[in-house]
Amino acid sequence: MPSLLQRLKERKLVQWALAYLAGVWAVMEASAYVGEQFHWPDVIGQVITVVAMVGFFVTLVLAWYHGEKGRQRVSGPELLMVAALLVIAAAALSVITSSDETHTASEPLEGFEGDDRPAIAVFPCENFSPDPADAYFANGMHDEILVRLSKISGLSTIGRESVEWYRDNPRPMREMVRELGVGFVGECSVRKDESQSQIRVTFQLIDGNTGSQIWAENYDRSLTVSSIFGIHSDVAQQVARAVGAVLTPEEQARIEGESTESLEAYTANSYGRIWLARRGTQGSVALEKAISHFEEALQHDSAFAPAYAGLASAYIVAPYYGEFVPNDFALRRAKSAVEAALRLDSELPEAHAVLAFIKMAFEWDWEGAEREFRRAIDLDPGFATAYQWYGFYLVTMRRFDEALAAMRRALQLDPLSPIINEDLGDVAYYARRFDDAIEQFQRTLALFPNRQSTHIMMGLANLQLNRHDEALGQLQLGIGDPSDAPQLPGSAAISSVYSAMGDSTTAREIVARSDAWSLQTRLYAYPGTRDLDRAFAVIDSAVEQRAPWVWLATVDPLYDFLRSDPRYTDLLRRMGLDH
Predict the structure, then answer these.
(1) Helix/strand/coil for 223
(2) How far apart are CA 172 and CA 321, in angstroms?
(3) Are 391 and 406 in contact (CB under 8 A)?
(4) What are phi and psi of 518, to 5 degrees?
């Protein structure tokens, strides 16, 4: 009777197995090299491994049935075994592809989603002063109350853009409460007397579900900075106490802090905050006014840390709203201002967030950027902008699920912010979740019609789904006035649509005009023609100048055609992203 080894040899099982393993080794080595060049996510390697393992067993089964001379046929049992193994492979692949495809942080931030803290929306303070111009003062009072409340970790506070949206789009209270997802509403009014020496601030806290008043207070004070800060502090602490949010000693100290003794500096800083918040709808015009007011505040008090932080915020985002401020000048002014802010107040959340943005967008100090983002969020858990900017950091690190979670957290805190609404769609686009991105862009446009940048991003998402007509239509809506076209990325991105539609002539004609366009716009030109040399030349210039958003080219699907070129590896190295 032949031994088991002899039977295996007769059926050529050993030869089949060795040949298969040699082939798998070659495939795994090749896929590892190609995956490194194209920056495949880890899940592709997992899929290849599972398929190889299942294939090995299929090979053994076939070898067993085909190894014996004269049995060169596929039998019923053979078919059943192969079918069973394929079902197993399909199940394994389903499990892998539905799992997390991205890198995760070693210590992910808590509280991105599923926030069960008491939530409050404080609506803009009404101006009851005889002088209509005092509306700015009332807006400043509202902004400072929000700042104090957002520093309470046990409380979730809706951002100013969302509550201000209802000023132009009034709703019944129950509807607003439902839309914002809050349980409490704050209402306030501000009145200066005719002599401008006394103020009365009225604040009431309302149960959003029943409409009943929980707490209210009238503050009659002399018009001094100390009195104003005292009102901010007391309102924040009374609200926290009323809704059951516990303040830590550190939070209480931050809430009670007084950052200036100059009423003029306080007022100018408040105006700067108002205009900085309007950049999402009024762009560079709002930023120019914000910068002017912050500088005025610092003229009145050169040791006013929040004004330095506000100035840094305005300068650091200015390059993303056109070219009214040169990129290198904006960086120098922002860095100088943020360093001054941190020297004066090392626990100022906004300053840490701006420093993080500088490290991310201009210095490419990725570890330092994450450290500063986390510090900003620790100091102010309700700081929507910190989560928003951190989302772009995470997407650059290809930690896509975390990036989406951070951006959703930002949207929870400021659900009617036009910038954050669009940026959530942007992150979904970079994560290659194109259908999700389009849905978010549609929601953004429903709230903020005719937002050009949203149309452009929706066009790019449709392009990735080969919906060429829709992509072309959205990009054309994003361009708007043809006189503005050279400054808008959508003008260049249209070349990619025509190229995908097979009209390479029109694509080349568009790109031929790109030399007169801004560098940021030219970044979008060459993917349409697949001109590697010109594309790398433009990106090299953008890297040298630290142009806005250039680092996102590493995750933008438009640039996938570059990834196999050795110059792309060098590009990653120069930006510190080769890891």
Answers:
(1) coil
(2) 35
(3) yes
(4) -65, 155
Residue intervals of the chain classified under CATH 1.25.40.10 are 417-579
Closest CA to 339 of 308, 371, 297, 385: 308
In the chain, % helix, strand, coil (3-state, to 5) comes to 70, 5, 25
Q: In CATH, what is the architecture of 417-579?
A: Alpha Horseshoe (1.25)
Whole-angstrom distance, CA of residue 453 vs CA of residue 322: 12
State which H helix or E strand residue 14 sits in: helix 13-38
Q: Which amino acid is at 319?
A: P
List, in order, residues 6 or more apart from 490 with CB less than 8 Å away.
Answer: 452, 455, 456, 459, 475, 476, 478, 479, 524
Per-residue DSSP letter, 130: S
Residue 349: other Cβ atoms inside 10 A? 24
Residues in the chain: 579
3-state secondary structure of 325: coil
Dist CA 545 CA 563 (whole Å)? 22
User: How big is the CA angle at 351 (ends 346 and 355), to the nearest 5 degrees?
Assistant: 110
Buried b (16+ CB within 10 A) or exposed e, 24-50: beeeeeebeeeeeeeebeebbebbbeb
Give me the tens of pLDDT residue by residue for the chain, a chain 579 residues long: 455 455 545 555 566 566 666 665 666 666 655 554 444 444 455 656 666 666 666 666 666 555 554 454 555 665 566 566 565 656 555 545 444 333 333 344 444 555 678 999 999 999 998 888 888 888 888 988 998 898 898 888 998 888 888 888 888 888 889 989 899 999 999 998 877 789 999 999 999 988 899 999 999 999 998 999 999 999 999 999 999 888 888 888 888 888 889 999 999 999 999 899 888 778 888 899 999 999 999 999 999 999 999 999 999 998 887 666 788 899 999 999 999 999 999 999 999 999 999 999 999 999 999 999 999 999 998 899 999 999 999 999 999 999 999 999 999 999 999 999 999 999 999 999 999 999 999 999 999 988 888 999 999 999 999 999 999 899 888 876 544 444 455 667 787 888 888 887 887 777 776 665 566 666 666 666 677 887 888 888 888 888 777 888 889 998 888 888 888 888 889 989 886
Q: How far apart are CA 10 and CA 13, in angstroms?
A: 8
Query: Which stretch of DSSP H or E encloses residue 200?
Result: strand 198-207
User: What secondary structure letter does DSSP report for 248?
Assistant: P
Q: How far apart are CA 77 and CA 536, in angstroms?
A: 57
Q: Are the beta carbons of 311 and 299 closer than 8 angstroms?
A: no
Place of tokens 């008043």: 213
Q: How far is CA 548 from CA 327, 360, 514, 521, in A?
A: 8, 11, 18, 10
Architecture of domain 119-251: 3-Layer(aba) Sandwich (3.40)
Which two tokens mark 315? 């300068």
Contact 370, 393 (CB under 8 A): yes
In the chain, CATH 3.40.50.10610 covers 119-251
